[in-house]
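Morning!

As promised:
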Amino acid sequence: MTNQEILDHIRTKFADQILEFDEPYGMLTIIINSDALLPVVEFIKTDELLQCNFMTDLCGMHHPDQQGRELGMVYMFHGMRKNIRIRIKCFMPIGDPHIDSITSLFKAANWMERETFDFYGIKFKGHPDLRRILNMDDMDYHPMLKQYKLEDGTRTDKDDRFFGRDGHDGVEFDQRYIK
Amino acid sequence: MSIDSIDIDTLEGEFSTLNLGPTHPATHGIFQNILTMNGERIYNSEQTVGYIHRAFEKIAEHRPFNQITPLTDRLNYCSSPINNLGWHMTVEKLIGCTVPKRVDYMRVIIMELARIADHLVCNTVIAVDTGALTGFTYMFQEREKIYELYEEVCGARLTTNIGRIGGFERDFSLAFHQKLKKFLAEFPKKFQEFCDLTERNRVFMDRVINACPFDAERSLNYGFTGPNLRAAGVDYDVRVMNPYSSYQDFDFIIPVGISGDTYDRYMVRQQEIWESVKIINQAYNNLPEGNYHADVPDFYLPPKDDVYNNMEALIYHFKIVMGEMDVPVGEVYHSVEGGNGELGYYLVSDGGRKPFRLHFRRPCFIYYQAYPEMIKGCLLSDAVVTLSSLNVIAGELDA
């Protein structure tokens, strides 16, 4: 199946939910409404033609410049029978970082969603055990958000410059996103 | 002994809590398994991970591309070259660079050597857990020879930082050719001894056959890849499904198991070692003539002589070291067949000197979460060999 055929096939059912689509480096990428995530994923998993029964990866993203859709989720699915790869993206405002959990469809999502919550503070509705996983439990911020510096993001007495951690444009980069 | 035959909720009696391990060289304080047990039977277990979390994804957002290679070393440190070369291939895909055929074949040789080293560690440790220390010490001599081969290519052994974006820093040396020929001639005989020691050994088989089987459906649902998925009977191999680095040129088979128990996981890795030897022989005997790197002056450091004597080379050298090269905007996912499964790199570039976002798909992190379900209802001794047969590498688990 070509990417166009896959896209048309998903469109027959979710025409209104697909906001944008693209094909960077050959992988079909569709941006959907975050409310429609669960039905879309269930469709591509169970559909006879696609059979994307394997979730390759999921991860979070932070785009501080995109007003109203700062936080993003990226999912990658794989239909091994026909070697179909689909990337699904959703965006949400940083003030309301909620999205449905897909643990009911893929158990592999459990720890990966915990990791995303740990890094970006995205809250997954319906996740059985949403706790931090890699960072310590009493950490009070989500370190992968762009406003936090590399070295100990909440301290003000330290600066990445002192450790040679950042090149010349790094300082500027950090200041751009500090609230 | 199988999970299905026990109804856990009907178990009666007192439960005890046990901190499992250290059983594996990697379990010394790096991850924790708290088991709730009834006698020898595991009733429940809870995993804590993250003790060596080093925030690689955050660090990567502050580094030029060539400085990210050393971070990938420290993911699955039993097969660092696969991680390094996978990362180089990801960047090459982003910048649209095609490498000469010779580089592909050189990479295949290095990656298959790394796969042998990775699987040797895993399989010999399973044997250690069943009481056979001999195989471990003997096979580590062979692993040492593989490390010497890395040393001839890049100068390092464990955290190799092997290769460059666009190829290799130098061609295979004369010593590498000699050592590789010697290794290819001697390794099969030595490895056969290890196979004879374990594969049909009644004591070993009794310990590992039917130890925590995991069927294909559950394995897929839990995101298993690599030998652990193939042990359950699914013949998914990135090298075959989405060939990279000219893997389509080589003739090899994908070994699969049936029930996904510890013996299957063990045997799949054993067979993969033989297949890797086959691939290395094919690649080495057909090593094409040509250059050992692609023509990408923006990313590939010029020879030192030119840097001193040639202004253009000096400019490129400066730009690469300072991370000033132009990078296209885009997002790319590239995956390679690592020692433990599909090792993926999701790279988002906004055209700056550093990645906007880099996510590693770490196979260990994804499949280790199935461990509680795998060992539920099993015996303690099964849990120990199962942990080894999953080949959980803490560096990859915690990133």
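The radius of gyration of chain A is 18 Å.

Hope this helps with the figure draft.
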